[in-house]
Amino acid sequence: MQNPTKYTQQIKQKAHELGFDFCGISKAGFLEEEAPRLENWLKANQHGKMQYMENHFDKRLDPRLLVDDAKSVVSLLFNYYPDQRLPEGKDDIKLSKYAYGTDYHFVIKDKLKHFLSFIHQEIGEVGGRAFVDSAPVMDKVWAKKGGLGWIGKHSNLINKKQGSFFFIAELIIDLELEYDHEIKDYCGTCTRCIDACPTGAIVEPFVVDGSKCISYFTIELKEAIPIDMRGKFDNWVFGCDVCQDVCPWNRFSKPHQEPHFNLHPDLQHFTNADWQEITEDVFKEIFKKSPLKRTKFDGLRRNVEFLG
Questions:
Q1: What is the reported pTM?
Q2: Active site residue 133
Q3: Closest by Cα among 155, 135, 276, 163 to 208
């Protein structure tokens, strides 16, 4: 297996066939620049009650500890920007756009499984693992290293051609490939995301205090939401897209082509009253394959009630 150029072309072509919008490849190694940033973020308790962020510190910084003799990180972006959207008026209850349809873990894991099978069939005995937000992998950093964009002041990856509404996945494999180059940061002096954040979670450019983020409160936090946050949620009950919605680069967002991510038909005419009166049976029916399963019925009810 000594033809990095050919293998790189095959992998990038297959990524496109599987529906990934962008594919970038970087050399697996220790993330030296990220180590002190991650350490400082954890020491400042900016991960809140997300204890899992403290685990596997070394593995987060070095993919060779996840895959023996890893040589390459293949980063993949999959668009989820919707064509049809929920109403997002001042008084409308809101869901993060990534949660409109089927849980992305199911959809993308299936594609990654096919991807690894293809590599084994076409290239040979390649060792590796596939990840989609499911292991201690710093996916945004690897996507940046693979030339797929830069990390914006809101800490999300921004792609120059299509904005930031992407799921990020990766294959970590023990195969030498041709590596892409990082691109520059194009945020410039813009501070729209910082200025618009309803809870002030972007505490300085490129640093998000996760414990102040609406997504954290509505998804990760399992206990009561602090009362001093009342009135600051801008009607979001699962996740929050404010920092992405105001980003000028998202004027280049294009509707995705994945039917699984379309808005669930039952949500198309959901009113605030429907959210407030939702029963556990209705929740289980509408959200049985949805990311909202993560917050469970009681969590969603807590979030809706917190809006007052």
A1: 0.95
A2: yes
A3: 155
